[in-house]
Each structure stands twice: as structure tokens, then as C-alpha cells.
Amino acid sequence: MIDLAIVGAGPAGMAAALEVAEAGFSVLVVDEQARAGGQIFRRPPAEWGIRHGDYRPYPWAQGLIERFEDHPRIEALFRATAFGMLRDAPEVGSGLQLAVHSAQGGRLVAARRLLIATGAHDMPVAFPGWTLPGVMTAGAVQSLLKSQKLLAGQRLVLAGSHPILLILAAQLLDAGARIAEIAFARGLPRLAEMVGALPAVPGHVALFADAARALRKILAHGVRLSRHTVVTGAEGGEALSGVRLQKVDGDWAPKGEARLVAADVLALGYGFHPSTELARQAGCNLHWHSAAGGWLVSHDDAFRTSAEGIFVAGEPTGIAGAERAWAEGRVAGLAIAASLGAKPSAARQVEAARMLARAGRFSRVVQAMFAPNRTALAALSLPEETIICRCELVRSGQLDAVLANNPFILSASAAKLECRSGMGLCQGRYCEATVAARIAAARRAPIEASGRFSAHLPVKPVPLQSYCDLRRGEE
């Protein structure tokens, strides 16, 4: 039996693994990528003979990755999917069992503790044409560039409200891309916002400097940077050929006439959603915090969840950046080691707590300044032919009809049962936010009142053979 199983090898997962392993316990880390680092530190394939990528502006990343990869008590299982959490039968015990799929098939991993450090995914936004080839998330465009050194297209439009757009634009320009326009839904920070951001500066000068460097590069290349502008549609036949952009008011409501900008790639960056499907399936309590990403996994000061034996760290607790995830992983790792019988030093606990507090000041500023307007974004999907659920091809008009004909439907899960939105391969990761916001608008209720989709095993699609393999017993 493994002492600790971790799902996710990003900053949080790596930091926690090191704390627990250095306390003398065995650790298994499961990750879907080919190498450690998570999305933020995505690296080129090992076959290229290059150990590290570009981690700017995080000077601590290289050391963290090297310590993680070189530690003798940490076993890493890459290109593997954790698709469910089970518990022993009462007559057997109360241990945790993680269902994992890899190239070798399915297996059950028995563990004394489980850490969910599953990161986040780009916030999807539905609008006419958003399913066209060439419409991508900012994270997907960045991943291609980081891991494969590939440009997603020749002429790009970047649209959204998150500062990742500026960083991505600079990276694309460095790689020789042509950016037609960057459309930012919000305006420049107001004086009150800049004053409020001052507490976040100490310890984060490199992050602010990197953002300033990116903005200078954008301006130097003459890229059009439009403020108070959103994407209202994508056009094309078999692939994207143009993007409709429109000015918005302070509430992000479109005004005036839309204009068409030629592009073969549209990169969307409105923010991120925590990957909480495994936590939901495991029975962890969640709570709503829109600016921090939506539905977050609840936890105590030691990052224990409401489910016995399960801890959480990183983006599932709130979208807060790599440094915060690193700090949370350290705090959670120390708490897990203590729960297993170790006695972490007071100095390490104090250091981790200070890291957490410092990172928290920065993340709260970013969350407040760049929170998405979910109601306005959901309104972009109103045209009745707009696809809401791309897996099941549920259109906006179908959802409207379901809500009109069933006034008792008040939740996203109820709508899911009636019109199949959220029943496809992605299990609602692409449509939950839109469906919930549309229900809230129809019922004149806050978005959180619409609830969330339930998560069941498997939380991600895996071959049926992996189920059969689980019968071979736990490891």
C-alpha cells in the first residue's frame, strides 16, 4: 500500500510529494502529461534530449522539478489518467483506492492518503461559431508552443479578459507569429485597482516585470490592442476564417456594430476553471467563488477536505497561480506527513505558512482585477442555433425550450437529465458554466443557485478494458 497517492504533477503535487517523501513515506504521483511540471511548466518531450523548458518568471521551478524527479521515494506514473476514487468495503478496511488507466491498462492503487492536485482548464465560452476548427483556448495555443514549438496558426486573434493573453502574445511574437488583434473585455486598471494592487508587489516583482515586458513587446510590434471589446462570433466553412469583435460597455454588454477580423486561429483567454471532477466523485464538499474560478474544493487550514483521508492543493482550491499552488502543496504535504505519523519541523511549517500568505496577497489582487463577467459571457450563447454542449450537440434553442416547458427545472443537473447537456465525453467541463448561467438568467437567480453537474466514475473517458483490469486486484 502506498502512503500517499497524488493526482497531478504540477507545482502543488510536486511540492507535496517532496514534503511527504522527505518525511520517509512512499509517494505515487499520477499525471496525464508525459513529464512533470503541470500546464504552467509544460516541457518539450524527453526524446528531444532537453530536460527543462522556459520557466520565466518562476526561478524556483527548475529546482522543484529536479528535486521531484530525482527523489528515490517518489514514483511517477505519467501518461496516466486517474478516473475514479473508491473505498475498501467495510469488512476490509477504510483505505482509499485510486482507479488509474495507463498504457498498461487499468489498476487500483491502494493508498493511506490521497492528494487532489488536478490543476485547472481554460474557461470555455460559447458563442456562434465557437466549435469551428481554429477556435482554441489560450492554454491550448500556449501548450503547443511550449511543448512542441509549434504555432497554432499564421494569423491569430487573442480575445478575453485574463492577463495570460499578454504573456501568450509575447511568446507568440517571439516565435514569429502574426497577431492581428488582442481584444480585451475590460479596460485598463483604474487608479483604485492599482492602489489596491500595491500589497501584492513585494516578492512578486518578477511577475509584474514579465507582464510589463510582454506589453512593451506587443506595442513594439504594432499589435492592435482593443479595450472593452469581446468576441461575439466566429466565421468560416471547414475552419475559422474570421472573428467578429464588438465593443462593450462596463457590464460587457455589446454595443454598436460588430466588425470582422480575418484570422485562422482565435485564442480565448477569459480565465480558468478548477478541475474538480475527481473531488466531486470522491464526495468532497465544494463552494462557489466566481472570481477564483467557480466551484472550489472546500478545505481546512491543513488542506484537508470533507472526505476522510483526502487532501487538496493547487488550483482546485481556487485559481491563484503557480506560486500559490507551490505554497499550498508544501503546507498540504507537511499536514499529510503529520497525519501519517511524522513530526515536521516547526521551521518548515513557518516557512511554508509565510510562502502561502505572500502568494495569497498576489492571487487575491489578480482575482479581483480580472474576474470574468459570467452573465455577460453566457449571453453570447443566446442565438438559438449556437451549440451549448459540443459533445451532445445541444443547441441554445433546445435549452430554452427545456426551461420554458419545465418551469420546475432550477439546476444544471436537472437540465442535464432533460436535454443531455453534460453527458458527453467531457462530462460537462465545456458546458456546465454556460448552462448554469443560462438557467440563472432564466430563473432570475444567482449562478451558484443553479448548482453543478454531478461527477461519477469514470470522471474521464477510459477504455472499457481498464474496468475489467480493476478486477485483478489492488496494488
Topology, please?
Blueprint: E1 2-7, H1 11-22, E2 27-30, H2 61-70, E3 74-77, E4 81-87, E5 96-102, E6 105-116, E7 120-122, E8 135-137, H3 138-148, E9 155-160, H4 164-174, E10 178-184, H5 191-197, H6 205-220, E11 224-226, E12 229-236, E13 240-247, E14 259-262, E15 265-269, E16 272-274, H7 277-281, E17 286-289, E18 294-297, E19 310-312, H8 322-339, H9 346-369, H10 374-379, E20 387-389, E21 394-395, H11 396-405, H12 412-419, H13 432-443, H14 464-470
Parallel strand pairs: 1-2, 1-6, 2-3, 6-19, 8-15, 9-10, 9-15, 10-11
Antiparallel strand pairs: 4-5, 5-6, 7-16, 12-13, 13-14, 17-18, 20-21
Please characterize this protein's 3D structure:
The chain is of the alpha/beta class and 475 residues long. It folds into three domains: 2-121 and 273-369, FAD/NAD(P)-binding domain (3-Layer(bba) Sandwich); 126-269, FAD/NAD(P)-binding domain (3-Layer(bba) Sandwich), CATH 3.50.50; 374-450, Arc Repressor Mutant, subunit A, CATH 1.10.10. 33% of the residues lie in helices and 22% in strands. It is built from 14 helices and 21 strands. It has helices at residues 11-22, 61-70, 138-148, 164-174, 191-197, 205-220, 277-281, 322-339, 346-369, 374-379, 396-405, 412-419, 432-443, 464-470, and strands at 2-7, 27-30, 74-77, 81-87, 96-102, 105-116, 120-122, 135-137, 155-160, 178-184, 224-226, 229-236, 240-247, 259-262, 265-269, 272-274, 286-289, 294-297, 310-312, 387-389, 394-395. The strands form six sheets. Strands 1, 2, 3, 4, 5, 6 and 19 form a seven-stranded mixed beta sheet that branches. It has a five-stranded parallel beta sheet with strand order 8-15-9-10-11. Strands 12-13-14 form a three-stranded antiparallel beta sheet, with no helix packed on it. The longest helix has 24 residues, at 346-369. It is globular. Keywords: Oxidoreductase. Residues 3-329 form the FAD/NAD(P)-binding domain. InterPro entries: BFD-like_2Fe2S-bd_dom_sf, FAD/NAD-bd_sf, FAD/NAD-binding_dom, Metab_Enz_Cyan_OpOx_G3PDH, Opine_Oxase_asu/HCN_bsu. This is NADPH-dependent 2,4-dienoyl-CoA reductase/sulfur reductase-like enzyme.
